[in-house]
Amino acid sequence: MENLKNFLGTVAVKLLLKLKESFIAKFGSAPKFYVRAPGRVNLIGEHIDYCGYAVLPMAIEQDILIAVEPVNNDVVQLANTNSLYLDFSASINDIQIDKTKSQWHNYFLCGLKGIQEHFGLNNPTGMNCLLDGTIPPSSGLSSSSALVCCAALVTLRANGKTLSKVELAEICTKSERYIGTEGGGMDQAISFLAEEGTAKLIEFSPLRATDVRLPSGAVFVIANSCVEMNKAATSHYNTRVMECRLATKLLSKSKGLDWKKMLRLQDVQDKLGVSLEEMLTIVEEVLHPEPYSTEEICKCLGISLEDLRSQILSQNTQNVSTFKLHQRAKHVYSEAARVLEFKKICNEAPANAIQLLGELMNQSYISCREMYECSCPELDQLVDICLQFGAVGSRLTGAGWGGCTVSMVPTDKLNTFLKNVKKAYYQSDVQRLALENNSLFATKPGRGALVFVEA
After folding, report:
1. Are 191 and 40 in contact (CB under 8 A)?
2. Is 3 a residue whose pLDDT tops 60?
3. Are 335 and 370 in contact, with CB atoms under 8 Å apart?
4. Cβ atoms within 10 A of the Cβ of 65, count?
């Protein structure tokens, strides 16, 4: 629990007081507490958390903020300061999450349901909640996961329960799957485990976070491509998760492992006891670059199409007919190695650290674009512009197919970099120009989710 004035700066206090006024106008009484959860930028390690590998994100200052009043009935009432997002209310004992609609309230319900189920709450407290957010939606900065985390913390506090940050992160990772996103846990982990002033190496099974001190002399700049991508509403993301799962199965079978029990590419490496470099050699030997049809996969595994669909493929990938396994596995194993190298450079801090880290970011982007195919023309253009105007490294961040880039920019070049990118990417397009103010900004590592009350 944090005291408001000690924690928030002047600007944030003003925003909070405005949220309080809006809450009183909406519900006729004052909120009892507030919860905030930050967005995040992943510096390196894209699409590998759900394969079991470590990632390297940091929390950003932009966040989701919810004002809350527990009430003596069984209704949860949700409202949003943004009039584009409609009010919602439901019985707290009958939470239904519609996977076919990625409406904002469904993400709140994921977090609420996760806490309800964890504690087996039979008669949870009703709540009035008003949400405000500064994370651009569908931008790859984890607005949806921040909302799930915020909702879980709201429900936890309203019902007088406590959990560790690690437990909360693990519950939120599972509960976000109610909306159909097969995520790996990075977004929820950094939302709870982030600390001001440091990025984090997030490792899984068991979940843990290690400080990574970023080099002085450079800043990370986020630039929004202004192309929205919603993970729950599109099949790209979940298809990639399945391609990695299928690659796991085929690699395991080729090496005589119990492939039915193997789910993640890291499991194969663990069982074989080999290095990431050796895994890349095995990928070249075992998986062909041409796409695999469902028939060929069934033949390789000795199973029927019905078995493939019922036992391996997720609900929203049932109708996918071809899968690229070689490219996806190659990206995952090489990206996992880049994350470890990035952390090593940060720890050892050689004189050319900024240059080396920039090169790793550029390699990551090429792999995302060519092996994982999760870029888009606008992201490609934006990365080129960022590199042209002084970034030492630039890459897409988040799921891709739209959203943001993150660039490492020497501090002494920051102002001219921002000015030139603004001109080249945003001022050349009317739609982007309208979104320009919230689309390009330098960021530093922020703190994680918390509950606070007024002093």
Report:
1. yes
2. no
3. no
4. 20
> Which positions are annotated as active-site residues?
187
Amino acid at 439: S
The per-residue b/e assignment along 246-265, b for 16 or more CB within 10 angstroms, e otherwise, is bbbbbbbbeeebebeebbbb
Lowest mean pLDDT among 173-182, 260-269, 390-399: 173-182
Q: Write the pLDDT tens digit of every residue in 279-312.
A: 999 999 999 999 999 999 999 999 999 999 999 9
d(CA 158, CA 144): 21
Residues 406 and 4: beta-carbon distance below 8 Å? no
**Cα distance between residue 366 and residue 372, in whole Å:** 9
First-last CA distance in the chain: 11
Left, alpha or beta for 109 (phi > 0: left; psi -120 to 50: alpha)?
A: alpha
**What is the arithmetic mean of pLDDT over 398-409?**
94
Query: Which residue is it, tokens 């004052």?
Result: 30
Q: Is 447 exposed, middle or buried (0-12, 13-18, 19+ CB in 10 A)?
A: middle
Label residues 360-396 b or e (16+ Cβ within 10 Å = b). bbbbbbebbbebbbbbbebbeebbebbbebbbbbbbb
Q: What percent of the chain has pLDDT over 70?
A: 95
| Residue whose C-alpha is closest to residue 56's, from 200, 245, 206 | 200
Q: How far is CA 254 from CA 241, 243, 273, 371, in A?
A: 20, 16, 15, 22
Residue 397 above 60 pLDDT? Answer: yes
> What's this model's pTM, rounded to 2 decimal places?
0.92
**pLDDT of amino acid 1:** 46
Instruction: Strands of 4-158 (E only): list them.
Output: 33-44, 56-71, 75-80, 88-91, 126-133
CB atoms closer than 10 angstroms to residue 266 = 22
Rounded to 5 degrees, what angle do the CA atoms 122, 128, 129 make?
110
What dihedral angle (degrees, nearest 10) is formed by the CA atoms of 104, 97, 400, 244? 170
CA pair distance 219, 217, nearest whole angstrom = 7
Give the integer Cα–Cα distance in Å for 136 and 64: 10
pLDDT of 170 = 96
DSSP state, 195?
Answer: B
Nearest C-alpha neighbor of 424 from the set 386, 380, 377: 386
Tens digit of each residue's pLDDT (9 = 90 or more) over 212-229: 999 999 999 999 999 987
